[in-house]
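Archive record
______________

***
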Amino acid sequence: MMTWWIGIISLREMDQKYWYLLFLIFGISVIYSMVRSFIRWIVQRRSFMLLSYLFISFFIFTIYFGLSLLNGGLNQGFFYSFPLIMQSLAFFGCLLIIGATIRRWLNK
């Protein structure tokens, strides 16, 4: 029974895809710890508009990259439409900032 586990854990016999999987899991863990502290800071400052903007941007990027990979990968159409996505998110962020500024001025 014990030799079976040693065979699985043997580092020399691991396939390359398992190394990529371990690296991916480690990277996700590091990113999670960094993002978690950033989100706590945003919530403590009560900046829910910024948090919603970040969540919406992440959701848009996930859908965009997922659809582009389903349609054959990163082709010319991806590189032509990516600046449009970035500009749209920047414009949306500017509208949120302007709306928050106007609300703050009206409440004073």
